[in-house]
Specification:
alpha/beta, Rossmann fold, 2 domains, 6-stranded parallel sheet, 41% helix, glycosyltransferase, Glyco_trans_4-like_N, transferase
């Protein structure tokens, strides 16, 4: 089976879709009966099995850039097929694959990686360009579910949300995003000397609710903390620094954007991983923390409970509540045996997020899609022949 993955995120490996795109190229080595190639705009250095595509749009069209990408990626994919006769088109963003889903002669599979569009509706109307953008994206995302042969989500939570909002339950399947466990060394013992080091990794620090985390740590004034912040762009540093004003037991360790290798090293150096997210479809960073033996404190939102096995692998609290978050962090510090049990549970549990499990599940789903498409084509030809 030949697969072409279209993704607007590849080289900048700081998010789930980019990590996924880089991982699955290993399919070519592990499963030689299959071949996968990638089409992306996010590449500056030539890479084997990766095709570049140029997306250049004037600034005034920025709001509609995803609509133009639909046609740009489709046209590029059709040109590639002249030399690489792929059996299935896989889009890392189902919306960008909408045009291909409608007109392509090959079967298409789209991925929905978050609920950013699903949650938009008239009940939360705002007179802003962002609300309008998300509203339009929701309409197109719904159409993509209708026209793609299959839709992949990354958690049971998101699967339920997609089906409830867009329908077509027979074509929506959960595929957990995975990590390369071989790169993570499990390290259960942490020093927990003051200042206790807390690690926060989230580019969208507002969605990760960094401010509530700083408020919670300030409540635990019998401890001193160093909060390492990874992910946000440099332009947000002054705003984030304001979260620390007047919190004497808390100091900021600003790291900004970091490579995956640097983040992994910080997971070995810190004592607790905490991103008390307000919204999260899965939370791959939590998986990485568990694989490193880092205690995890998070929130009962989205797919996070699936990663933390509903509290068996870490501490879960309601979002936006600094008091309960502070209590959970204090428990992770003071209840040593409880912490050891949760960390040990996490070591076993993350095996279900192994890249090999993801590869096999992905190939099985795509093979079914190709087989169904071939069967329908043969049926059509037989009907027309009769």
């Amino acid at each position: 089976m030949k697969i072409l993955l279209c993704t607007n995120s590849f080289e900048n490996v700081t998010n789930g879709p980019a990590k996924f795109a880089n991982l699955i190229l290993e399919i070519n080595t592990l499963y030689p009966e299959h071949e996968i190639r990638i089409l992306t705009e996010d590449i500056t250095i030539p890479h084997e099995n990766v095709y570049p595509v140029k997306v250049r749009l004037p600034r005034f069209l920025k709001l509609l850039s995803q609509f133009f990408r639909m046609f740009i990626y489709h046209n590029a994919a059709q040109k590639i097929r002249r030399e690489f006769a792929y059996d299935v088109l896989l889009y890392n963003n189902s919306f960008i694959g909408l045009w291909s889903a409608i007109v392509s002669k090959q079967p298409t599979v789209g991925m929905i990686n978050d609920d950013n569009n699903i949650i938009i509706g008239w009940n939360n109307f705002k007179a802003s360009s962002m609300w309008l953008k998300r509203f339009l994206f929701r309409k197109c995302e719904k159409l993509s579910v209708r026209y793609h042969q299959h839709i992949l989500t990354n958690s049971d939570f998101l699967t339920e949300k997609v089906i409830a909002a867009y329908g077509h339950p027979q074509k929506v399947t959960r595929l957990y995003k995975s990590i390369d466990l071989s790169k993570n060394k499990f390290q259960a013992d942490r020093p927990f000397v003051q200042p206790i080091r807390i690690l926060f990794v989230k580019a969208d620090f507002r969605r990760g609710d960094l401010q509530t985390l700083t408020d919670a740590l300030a409540l635990l004034d019998r401890f001193t903390f160093q909060l390492t912040v990874v992910g946000p762009e440099e332009r947000f540093k002054s705003l984030i620094e304001s979260y620390f004003v007047g919190k004497g037991n808390l100091q900021l360790d600003w790291r900004g954007e970091q490579s995956p290798d640097n983040v992994r090293q910080l997971m070995y150096e810190c004592d607790i991983f905490c991103v008390p997210a307000l919204q999260e479809a899965l939370g791959v960073a939590n998986i990485e923390a568990l694989a490193c033996g880092l205690p995890v404190v998070s929130t009962i939102v989205g797919g996070i409970p699936e990663v933390l096995d509903h509290g068996k692998n870490g501490w879960l609290v309601p979002p936006g509540n600094p008091n309960e978050l502070a209590q959970a962090i204090e428990s992770s510090i003071t209840f040593i045996e409880q912490r050891k049990n949760k960390v040990s549970n996490g070591e076993s549990f993350v095996k279900r997020f192994s890249k090999y499990v993801m590869y096999q599940d992905l190939l099985a789903i795509l093979q079914d899609v190709v087989s169904d498409h071939t069967h329908r084509d043969l049926s059509k030809k037989a009907s027309s022949g009769s």
